[in-house]
Each structure stands twice: as structure tokens, then as C-alpha cells.
Design a protein that fits this description.
Strand content: 15-25%
Shape: globular
Largest sheet: 4 strands, mixed
Structural class: alpha+beta
Order of helices and strands: HEHEHEEHH
């Protein structure tokens, strides 16, 4: 859990992902398309990926990926992020975290 918290606080937007996950790809694309450059941690390519995956599950992210942190705070998984995008709240979160300048 400490590793996840440490990594999540190192950049305005952090995404824990798996390289083979289509929803992870969609969420990463959503942020890139808005001009955000998130830190991405591919759990299936990290030697401690399983450990981090369990920590994300304990945080309430089920499935464990994609797990999105904005401003060091756990925002949620794909459904939550898409809901925030659709209701217009995501952009404000990104601005408040310093991930967007406009």
C-alpha cells in the first residue's frame, strides 16, 4: 500500500494499468486527448505488480485496473472516471491538481 501511495503522489495524474487491458487503454487515451500527461504504471510489467494490484483492490478498485489518482487522491476506476468526464467534473479535478493549464 505504501508503494502505491508513494507512486500516486509523484505526479498530478497517475494511472495504474495493465498493458493488455482495453479499458486501461481507453482511460489513458481520455487523459492524453485532454492534453494531460499522466504517469503510467503497468502492473503486468512491474516486478512488484501483484503486490500493487492487491493494494488497489484493498482501496476498493475492483477490477484493480485502471486505477486513477488525481492530485495524489484515489479517484476510482474506469466507471468513475467516465462518469466524471460525462458530467464535466473531471476537467475541474485536473485543473485543481495542476494537470491542466486551461
Amino acid at each position: 500500500m505504501d508503494r502505491v501511495a508513494k507512486l500516486a503522489s509523484q505526479k498530478a495524474v497517475v494511472i495504474f494499468s495493465k498493458s493488455s487491458c482495453c479499458m486501461c487503454h481507453a482511460i489513458k487515451r481520455l487523459f492524453y486527448d485532454q492534453g494531460v500527461s499522466p504517469a503510467i504504471y503497468e502492473l503486468d510489467e512491474d516486478s512488484r505488480g501483484k503486490e500493487m494490484e492487491w493494494a488497489l483492490l484493498r482501496l476498493g478498485c475492483n477490477p484493480s485496473v485502471p486505477a486513477v489518482f488525481i492530485g495524489g487522491k484515489f479517484v476510482g476506476c474506469a466507471n468513475t472516471v467516465m462518469t466524471l468526464q460525462l458530467n464535466g467534473s473531471l476537467k475541474k479535478l485536473l485543473k485543481d491538481a495542476g494537470a491542466l493549464w486551461l
